[in-house]
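Thread: Newbie trying to understand structure tokens

Hi all, I'm a second-year student working on a class project, and my supervisor (Dr. K.) asked me to get a predicted structure for one chain before our next meeting. I've only ever worked with sequences, so writing a 3D structure as a token string is new to me. If someone could post the tokens and maybe explain what I'm looking at, I'd be very grateful. Here's the chain:
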Amino acid sequence: MCALSLVADTPALAEHYERYSVDRQFQAGRSLIERLNIQSAEHVLDVGCGTGLLAAHVAELVGQAGNVIGVDPLPLRIQIARRKAAANLSFKVGDASGLREFADDSFDVVYLNAVFHWLPEKLRPLANFHRLLKPYGRLGIATVCREHPNLIQQVLAREPYSQYPEAGAPHRVSRDELRHLLDAAGYRVQSLGLESMRTLHASPAALLEHVRASSFGNFLQHLPRELRAGAEREILAELERARTPDGVRQETQRLVAVAIKV
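---
Reply by user tm_fold:
Sure, no problem. This is what the structure looks like when written as tokens:
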């Protein structure tokens, strides 16, 4: 078993994520951005920006009078993101528990798309975002829901894999848990609900490649080495059973929340 690694990422995984998230995380992220109602001239922080696709979209919304900053703890992803840099768009290596270089009340909007479940501790980052937001600033979170496991998570809930807590895997929350966390951190929840995220992959192997890229090399690393191959075979078998003539459809239930700093 191992903890979440930030050094397991590779150039190949980062480039794969850039190519394949266009039809996946990016499209789902646009739904979150619509809920946040981002306006021209606003200042926005994208936490866990990855390769910067969604931040570049938001930079178009805020225009030249606004500003978007993307932060991510993975240097290889930031290298790719910086290809998109512009006068109103910049990227930095950083994580949700840091961000000390930003002053209090700096941003109109802070958002995390497919990131919150990677944070092992939730309240400290939420308090950090609260500090960074202007009064009545908006926080947006889209994250996988613990109450709706997908096929991969269902396999990992079986024996013997269930004996090994996913120390290096997502720390998912339920709807009630997310609401409680936001309340405890001083936010007023404006909206909180489930949203289906549907993706199509050419084959079971292609889906797993995207999972590896999305988990920046951490997929199955929480398992003892001798169990990883068997777990992957079982996952591939389940995905093969779910294959359609078009490919493998994956449906994930995401929690999507918008909260206001009060």
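A couple of things are worth pointing out once you decode it. The domain at 11-145+170-200+252-261 is CATH 3.40.50.150 (Rossmann fold). The radius of gyration is 18 Å. Feel free to ask follow-ups in this thread.
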